[in-house]
Amino acid sequence: MTADQTTPVLETRGITRDYVSGGMFGGTRTVRALKGIDLKVERGKTLAVVGESGCGKSTLARIIAMIDSPTGGELLIEGQKVEIAKRGISPELRRKVQIVFQNPYGSLNPRQKIGDVLAEPLKLNTNLPDSERRDRAMKMLLKVGLKREHFNRYPHMFSGGQRQRIAIARAIMVQPALLVLDEPVSALDLSVQAQILNLLQDLQDEFGLTYVFISHDLSVVRHVADDVMVMNFGEAVEYRSRDAIFAAPEHPYTRTLFAATPRINVDSIRERVARKAAARRATGHATPEPVST
Amino acid sequence: MSATDDPHLGTAEQEPLGPPPIAPWRESWHYFLANRGAVIGLVVLALLVLTAIFAPLLAPHDPTMQYRDALLVPPAWLERGRPEFLLGTDALGRDILSRLIFGARFSLVIGLVVVALALVSGIFVGLIAGYFGGWIDSAIMRVMDIILAFPSLLLALVLVAIIGPGLFNAMLAIAVVLQPHFARLTRGAVIAEKNREYVTAARVAGASNLRLMVRTILPNCLGPLIVQATLSFSNAILDAAALGFLGMGAQPPTPEWGTMLAEAREFITSAWWVVTMPGIAILITVLAVNLIGDGLRDTFDPKLRRS
Amino acid sequence: MALLEVRNLSVSFETASGDLFYAVRGIDISVDVGEVLAIVGESGSCKSVAMLAVMGLLPPVAIVKADVMRFDGRDLLTLSPRQRRDLSGREMAMIFQEPVASLNPCFTVGFQIEETLRKHTDLDAAARHQRAIELLQAVGIPEPERRLGSFPHQMSGGQCQRVMIAIATACTPRLLIADEPTTALDVTVQKQVLDLLLRLQAENGMALVLITHDMGVVAETADRVIVQYAGRKMEDTDVVSLFSAPESPYTRALLSALPENAGSGRLPTVSDFAPPAEAMK
Amino acid sequence: MVRFILNRLLLIVPTFIGITLVAFIFIRLLPGDPVILMAGERGVSAERHAELMAQFGFDQPLWKQYVDYVSGLLHGNFGYSYSTKKPVLSEFMARFPATLELGLCAIVLASVLGIAAGILAAIRRGSWIDQVTMGTALVGYSMPIFWWALLLIILFSTKLGWTPVSGRIALTQFFPSVTGFMLIDSLLAGKPAAFWSAVQHLILPTIVLATIPLAVIARQTRSAMLEVLGEVYIMTAKSKGLTPRRVIWLHALRNALIPVVTTIGLQVSVLIGGAILTETIFSWPGIGKWMIDSISRRDYQVVQGGLLLIAAVVMFVNLTVDLLYGLINPRVRYR
């Protein structure tokens, strides 16, 4: 495979996905969850996909990670066409795209030691001897900021942030070209979120990883993305560079989304507090009596 | 920033009101041991197992030996009781205690064999149905529905009527009847697990269907299956005894507890001990196993554990 | 005088080993009439425990101790359960994080609203029905009359939270406690729900306690903020000084971990300040 | 809801076909051919054998036999008893009311007591009430009921002489059978003495038969209540200022009953299994005793027909419970 620098790591052309529900009685209903998504991500870049629940962003993530197959359209990984339905996926292709999920508590096998979690992808994809696999797993464990003694522990002994580190480590064990991050920090506390975002940034710099970053949180997106795609009802309503989109959102939905996102800005807080005080003075009661009905 | 020195800043991960993490084996074991009933059950069961293993050493008499001079002797502590027959004798002059001790062998073997048969076949069928879904699932589950549409004891009786009465046939019949419960349980657990993210992650890492089923999913379904296995163990003992009681299980003079009860029925008014003793043995065994089962259920079911 | 005053509150649980685990320890909270107070904390900070104690909703195994726990001049610690019940739902009310799970799946929305009215008012059935319609209207649910007959599972999460707000405000309480009311909701819905809460707060002049982990929500809603960490109060200040001049190192660390404060560079993390937040147990 | 019902009904079709197949295959799995089985000990000559094979259609290809069998079933032909020569269906109908009366009494007893005990244990979780109730339930759940029946007979019939040992009613009582239920018929005939006799005969079998379902229902109710009491909507109900009584008996119980109804439905199958033992011991002239007698008499046509009819009853009950489940669970009723 020639994956030179100019070929995008990921490209989709008109990806659609239909869900058929019902059956037996009442007839079937087809819901189009994705309505033709085109995107292109260059090596080492991060594409953020933003939207609210049900907008199709997770469906897109699963299709890119080759978990589900699209109903229509083309998916190209390093210029190579993916056709799950026709030919299945070769292990080589499967290896190239890995995924990290939102819920750190569901994404690790509760009955698998951390060392085995990390070594499993190597066992499935390479012919390395056992000792070499353990070696690499240990190295990766240390790289994502965990300790030597964590190797033989079970997932339930780790916090959410630590589990997310493990999930990320597992994903990059097989040196994928593309990492799909499906809301990787949404379940985490603010302080832990910052650590994970830093880790992802370091790994991207070190391995030249390409990210598709699914999120609903605009402040996180603004922090990580090179390009941003805003999705609504299965459609990409806006798809531009981060700076462009945050400077001047064009689509009405993007604007609604931006307007709804809470802003932390001392000036606007001051303004709000002042407004409230004024309103109180205007109605004439500093300590208003409850309205009785 | 000096707050590091604050001795009261505990770890941020303590969440007293949140669900506890899924317990691994060792932690489960500790939790299980904290359950008084379960430990009692375990001790009783262990004693029963020892009794069964060392029956020839423990039993004061040969269980089939008929003492013609000692028919229907009451237990030793009663009037007319004889010290050599601690729990009395039956209508043929056989020592009841010795028969009960040997009977433990049958009950435990019945439980083990039935559960092994039902568990293995049920897991196999349920795993396939749950993992592949679609028409395979529908077909398998309809077959299970059919088996479940018949009352289990009736179906076991009819099966025994076809293949002939006897202990082994009774065990086969009970295994067939219990198997759908394992199949359904496995299927449900597999369906719940197979869409969890760790399974998807393993698939993305390149795991094959077989590996996903057996190595990834199955170990995480074992909790409820173990609980069901203990409950089935006690059910098997009860059903086998019922079949024996109805004359369709172990045949006389086998000292199987249900069969002993069947033989004793006619002495219900004259010699209560012949009726009482085997029943107590069944009850204690089943109770011990069910206590263990309850303890395991509380251990494996985090929902009930939260208090 | 403060509407709600809590002084030196500790809530503890007995652990399996027999020790006491302190969920909150020595916390003072006061809320004034017409005030929006935010209690902020990360998971494990037990930020909702204090308010659950005020509402009397902690499980019976919880050991609640306080020097003062007063609501509107009444001592909550000495009230009989009956008197506590008369207060909650009428003068103080609470809504929760999971809107769909907060409503009983077996009863209609109308029943659940009217139940509160029946408990705390003298309205007859027709008047209760009328009031329920008004309440649904007030929380912005279209076709309120038809919606009264709906079951919770037929509504979206945002709508369920609106219904919960309708139930909580049915008797125009003087204190409304909202425990992560928008965490389970999308941002656009979150904005609507927060706006609704603030509007009702202003209209009824009630005090609002907003428990949240989201600094953005705090910035958009609160008058005053309490920052809690591992069961202890780290900071208690007005919202402007919280964001412009935070006093406690924990708050400072928390604020600097916000992605919007970091541009594209590395984010400072709280572990720079606190004992490893992810320390092994 | 309509779709839900239709779905349930449609699921029954394959199960029913399966059940007829089982019943059909049953007789063909028995060692020896059906005619020899029918003839029993007497034996049969070669010509007569062939004649009978043709008469009953046993010389037809298997699929044809099955089709004929099913079409017979659909016309109400469930075969004839070898020993009484009467149609299996009419024998079944003659005995079914006895089992139904006993079963209904048992399930009502088990449900009422079981639900009450379960609730009590749940709201007093950890107290001695909980421990005693659940301890008793566990013993009941572990009970070999055939032995339990014998114990009760020893105690109440032989030692105390309070209850009769067997049968449905004293032999001296006569009244016309209208519904087939002794309790109702005796009252209809205006004979309180007969009614009392019927009650006395019912007590022990009912207790025996109710034991295991009672234990199961109590345990299920408790765990369902405990689970529901941990739900957020219970917190909501409390925060409204409702009384604990209302929170438990209205908000919690309404939800906890949903799984309990399913459990009660599942007990019907258990009950029929138990009826085999109970009826045998108490000489109760119902379906269970009939089946056991037929099995030991090798009256396989009866066994076959009875098996099918019992499975049909179980399926009917399960369907009813499913529909009831849909009715009490708004999430199914209004989708």
UniProtKB/TrEMBL annotation, chain A:
<dbReference type="GO" id="GO:0016887">
    <property type="term" value="F:ATP hydrolysis activity"/>
</dbReference>
<dbReference type="Pfam" id="PF00005">
    <property type="entry name" value="ABC_tran"/>
</dbReference>
<dbReference type="InterPro" id="IPR017871">
    <property type="entry name" value="ABC_transporter-like_CS"/>
</dbReference>
<keyword id="KW-0067">ATP-binding</keyword>
<keyword id="KW-0547">Nucleotide-binding</keyword>
<feature type="domain" description="ABC transporter">
    <location>
        <begin position="10"/>
        <end position="258"/>
    </location>
</feature>
<dbReference type="InterPro" id="IPR003593">
    <property type="entry name" value="AAA+_ATPase"/>
</dbReference>
<dbReference type="GO" id="GO:0015833">
    <property type="term" value="P:peptide transport"/>
</dbReference>
<protein>
    <submittedName>
        <fullName>Dipeptide transport system ATP-binding protein</fullName>
    </submittedName>
</protein>
<dbReference type="InterPro" id="IPR003439">
    <property type="entry name" value="ABC_transporter-like_ATP-bd"/>
</dbReference>
<dbReference type="InterPro" id="IPR027417">
    <property type="entry name" value="P-loop_NTPase"/>
</dbReference>
<dbReference type="InterPro" id="IPR013563">
    <property type="entry name" value="Oligopep_ABC_C"/>
</dbReference>
Automatic annotation (TrEMBL), chain B:
<feature type="transmembrane region" description="Helical">
    <location>
        <begin position="153"/>
        <end position="178"/>
    </location>
</feature>
<keyword id="KW-0812">Transmembrane</keyword>
<dbReference type="InterPro" id="IPR035906">
    <property type="entry name" value="MetI-like_sf"/>
</dbReference>
<keyword id="KW-0813">Transport</keyword>
<dbReference type="Pfam" id="PF12911">
    <property type="entry name" value="OppC_N"/>
</dbReference>
<keyword id="KW-1133">Transmembrane helix</keyword>
<dbReference type="InterPro" id="IPR000515">
    <property type="entry name" value="MetI-like"/>
</dbReference>
<keyword id="KW-1003">Cell membrane</keyword>
<dbReference type="GO" id="GO:0055085">
    <property type="term" value="P:transmembrane transport"/>
</dbReference>
<dbReference type="GO" id="GO:0015833">
    <property type="term" value="P:peptide transport"/>
</dbReference>
<feature type="transmembrane region" description="Helical">
    <location>
        <begin position="106"/>
        <end position="133"/>
    </location>
</feature>
<comment type="similarity">
    <text>Belongs to the binding-protein-dependent transport system permease family.</text>
</comment>
From TrEMBL, chain C:
<keyword id="KW-0813">Transport</keyword>
<dbReference type="GO" id="GO:0055085">
    <property type="term" value="P:transmembrane transport"/>
</dbReference>
<dbReference type="Pfam" id="PF00005">
    <property type="entry name" value="ABC_tran"/>
</dbReference>
<keyword id="KW-0472">Membrane</keyword>
<dbReference type="GO" id="GO:0005524">
    <property type="term" value="F:ATP binding"/>
</dbReference>
<dbReference type="InterPro" id="IPR017871">
    <property type="entry name" value="ABC_transporter-like_CS"/>
</dbReference>
<protein>
    <submittedName>
        <fullName>Dipeptide transport system ATP-binding protein</fullName>
    </submittedName>
</protein>
<keyword id="KW-1003">Cell membrane</keyword>
<dbReference type="GO" id="GO:0016887">
    <property type="term" value="F:ATP hydrolysis activity"/>
</dbReference>
<dbReference type="GO" id="GO:0005886">
    <property type="term" value="C:plasma membrane"/>
</dbReference>
<comment type="similarity">
    <text>Belongs to the ABC transporter superfamily.</text>
</comment>
<keyword id="KW-0067">ATP-binding</keyword>
UniProtKB/TrEMBL annotation, chain D:
<keyword id="KW-1133">Transmembrane helix</keyword>
<keyword id="KW-0812">Transmembrane</keyword>
<comment type="similarity">
    <text>Belongs to the binding-protein-dependent transport system permease family.</text>
</comment>
<dbReference type="Pfam" id="PF19300">
    <property type="entry name" value="BPD_transp_1_N"/>
</dbReference>
<dbReference type="InterPro" id="IPR000515">
    <property type="entry name" value="MetI-like"/>
</dbReference>
<keyword id="KW-0472">Membrane</keyword>
<feature type="transmembrane region" description="Helical">
    <location>
        <begin position="195"/>
        <end position="217"/>
    </location>
</feature>
<feature type="domain" description="ABC transmembrane type-1">
    <location>
        <begin position="96"/>
        <end position="325"/>
    </location>
</feature>
<feature type="transmembrane region" description="Helical">
    <location>
        <begin position="256"/>
        <end position="282"/>
    </location>
</feature>
<keyword id="KW-1003">Cell membrane</keyword>
<feature type="transmembrane region" description="Helical">
    <location>
        <begin position="135"/>
        <end position="157"/>
    </location>
</feature>
<dbReference type="Pfam" id="PF00528">
    <property type="entry name" value="BPD_transp_1"/>
</dbReference>
